[in-house]
Amino acid sequence: MKIPVLLSSRLIQKRIKTLSRQISTDYKNKQPLLISILNGAFVFTADLIRHLTIPIRCDFMRVSSYGASIRSSGRIKIVMDLDISIKGKDIIIIEDIIDSGFTINYLIKELNKRKPRRMKICTLLDKKARRIIPIKIDYCGFVVPDKFVVGYGIDYNEQYRQLSYIGYIR
Ligand code: IMP
Ligand code: MG
Question: Residue 64: its pLDDT value, please?
């Protein structure tokens, strides 16, 4: 299947450089812990951190995903937890895409129980039109239309993660 382009690789890379610069400025003299949400955010995280000019730490977390289904169930659980304690730390959650907001809302609630000093949200994509739970996003790559997007780490049924661009399923 041919996947039409929504955001080109060049555009993504350019935007990520800007986001990294912004984060580096905002966290000057700090050492944030970046929490990358697997699997989707792994490519975005890898590119984002390589442009940062501040010291960081990075950890990973996996939450249950949609599986082969295209819609959010609203039932989420942690299937792989962090190794590093977040208590008293500046944390930035790195997501691939925020859709209904259920996943990130769950993560915000769970991670806040562990008493970080400050929590910010960074997402590559914001599918704003589908939001059910309002979410304050601190760093956003792109607002995308209500299409099922794939590529650049994001999958449909575990496929298309390897695309260097963001495309959509027709
Ligand atoms: P939410 O809980 O509805 O906000 O959805 C968040 C998660 O659903 C994301 O982290 C993705 O893993 C997945 N997701 C939402 N929209 C898409 C899409 O268009 N393509 C692929 N995955 C998506
Ligand atoms: Mg995800």
Answer: 86
pLDDT digits (tens, 9 = 90+) for 20-47: 999 999 999 999 999 999 999 999 999 9
Active site residue 146: no
Residue 38 near residue 80 (C-beta atoms within 8 A): yes
54: CA distance to ligand 2 center in Å?
25
Task: Single out the catalytic residue among 99, 126, 138, 146.
Answer: 99
Contact call for residues 34 and 92 (beta carbons, < 8 A): yes
Atom nearest to 156 CA in ligand 1: 21
pLDDT at 68: 43
The residues of the chain scoring below 70 in pLDDT are 65-74
We find that the CATH architecture of domain 9-147 is 3-Layer(aba) Sandwich (3.40)
Side-chain half-sphere exposure of 64, counting CA atoms within 13 A: 9
Query: Which residues sit with their C-beta closer than 6 Å to ligand 1?
Result: 40, 65-66, 72, 95-104, 127, 148-150, 154
Write out the two tokens for 38.
């697997």
**C-beta atoms surrounding 84 within 10 Å:** 13
